[in-house]
Write a structure and sequence with these properties.
The chain folds into 2 domains: about 5-25 and about 300-410, Alpha-Beta Complex (Aspartate Aminotransferase, domain 1); about 50-290, Aspartate Aminotransferase, domain 2 (3-Layer(aba) Sandwich), CATH 3.40.640. The protein has helices at about 5-15, 30-35, 65-75, 90-105, 130-140, 155-165, 185-195, 225-230, 260-270, 280-290, 295-325, 350-360, 390-410, and strands at about 20-25, 85, 120-125, 140-150, 150, 165-170, 205, 240-245, 255-260, 330, 340-345, 360-365, 380-385. The protein is globular and about 75 Å long. A hairpin with an 8-residue loop joins strand 10 (about 330) and strand 11 (about 340-345). By secondary structure, it is α/β, with parallel strands linked by helices. Bound molecules: pyridoxal-5'-phosphate. The site of pyridoxal-5'-phosphate has 14 residues, from helix 4.
């Protein structure tokens, strides 16, 4: 039997199993959610008043979120407790509010709403499809730069922003990025914060969704963007977003935004015009839960890593075993976050996804990691191993490897 026939036979065997596997979206596993189950009982009829005497049933409490929540979750964004706004359940929703408000009246220091300047935002590719959707829906034009292993391609960013005042900002994931898992380097972070931009209100929107999602016991510290900005005399240039979606419950926890105290003053005015305050009941539940969790936020994230790391290790093990040294694909080996990014050598990513689908494995559609839904090279596949159980990750990765081999063989 030829190699190709053997591959085809293996593929047909997977197909015959009528599998239903999913490595499409980066969701926590039930075992991850279980770690946070005590949240559901952390507030009851006896403890609805915060340490500061805020009654979580009533309006007063402030637009910035509960002091106690700000003190706990500032660690997540690596900012001070006076440099964070704790909002409602989704960072995307907060980002949407900030981007929309920037269009209407600008950011702190703008002369007018960005909508008057046909605003453009730099985004990184491969990147996160929801970033592209959110910014586009609001009317921003997207300009892409490559996500490198050191962060956004800074040579390209520097060139783009120097003479184009319509480029109002950059929108990217600084730590364990979606999908490559790369973290911005100290050098690139310095260059980005200090970039010489034609737009005087150029802003760095850092979606730090995976800031504390380390897989290693002793993670390397990521650059502290706000500190760099403050040290560079550009404190107002950066806004950092995050949430507890992959810390406690997905869409069922807290969103947050970190920024300079001056920016806090500006944005609290803006936010106060549309809300009396965020959901204090959820914030208080999170505070009481985190206080009781052994090791606090760090302890919780280490327990998440114990569940996630074997899955990421399995991805590497199968890919190395099945595709190592064959010149068919390369892939990332991230130290944190939720994804592994695989690039086929031949332009066959869409065929791999199609073959996998026919064999009962859902993968992120090709092109989703690019702004117009089309991968110009047809090579990138985002793998999301967090949600399925370990045994399924192994089988799913064997199918991915088989499909890569088959699709590559098809083009010769
Ligand atoms: C980079 C990034 N940002 C934001 C989100 C969603 O965050 P939230 O649930 O807080 O809206 C995700 C989810 O996959 C993500 O990967």
């Amino acid at each position: 039997m030829s190699d190709y026939d053997a591959l085809l036979k293996q593929y047909q065997e997977y197909k015959a199993r009528n599998l239903s596997l999913n490595m499409e979206r980066g969701q926590p596993a039930d075992a991850n959610f279980d770690l946070s189950l005590p949240i559901l009982g952390s507030v009851d009829q006896s403890n609805y008043t915060t340490d500061d005497g805020v009654d979580i049933r009533n309006y007063p409490g402030g637009i910035l979120g509960l002091r106690e929540a700000r003190e706990i979750f500032c660690e997540q964004l690596n900012v001070g407790s006076n440099e964070i706004i704790i909002g409602n359940n989704s960072s995307l929703e907060m980002m949407g509010t900030f981007f929309a408000r920037a269009l209407l009246r600008g950011v702190n220091g703008s002369q007018r709403g960005w909508v008057h300047d046909s605003p453009r935002l730099i985004v990184t590719v491969p990147g996160y499809d929801r970033h592209f959707l959110l910014a586009r829906e609001l009317g921003y034009q997207l300009v892409t730069v490559k996500m490198t292993t050191n962060g956004p391609d800074m040579d390209a960013v520097e060139q783009l922003v120097a003479n184009d005042a319509s480029i109002k900002g950059i929108y990217f994931v600084p730590t364990y990025s979606n999908p490559t898992g790369d973290t911005i380097s100290q050098e690139y972070a310095q260059r980005l914060i200090n970039v010489n931009a034609a737009a005087q209100d150029f802003t760095v929107f850092a979606d730090d969704a995976y800031a504390v999602h380390h897989l290693d016991d002793n993670p390397l510290p990521a650059p502290n963007l706000l500190q760099i900005a403050k040290d560079s005399g550009k404190a107002n240039r950066v806004i950092i977003f995050g949430s507890t979606s992959k810390v406690t419950f997905a869409s069922g926890g807290l969103g947050m935004a970190g920024m300079s105290e001056e920016n806090i003053t500006y944005w609290s005015k803006v936010l106060s015009s549309q809300s009396i305050g965020p959901n204090k009941a959820e914030q208080w539940r999170h505070v009481l839960f985190m206080r009781n969790y052994p090791g606090g936020l760090q302890g919780l994230m280490q327990d998440h890593a114990k569940i996630l790391k074997p899955k990421f290790d399995k991805v590497q093990e199968v890919l190395n075993r099945e595709l190592g040294n064959q010149n068919l694909a390369s892939w990332t080996d991230p130290r944190g976050g939720y994804f592994v990014s695989l690039d086929t050598i031949q332009p066959v990513a869409s065929r791999v996804v199609e073959l996998a689908k026919e064999a009962g494995l859902a993968l992120t559609p090709t092109g989703a990691t690019f702004t117009d839904g089309k991968d110009p090279e047809n090579k990138n596949i985002r793998l999301a191993p967090t949600r399925p159980p370990l045994e399924e990750v192994e089988l799913a990765m064997e199918i991915v490897a088989c499909c890569v081999k088959l699709a590559s063989a098809e083009v010769g």
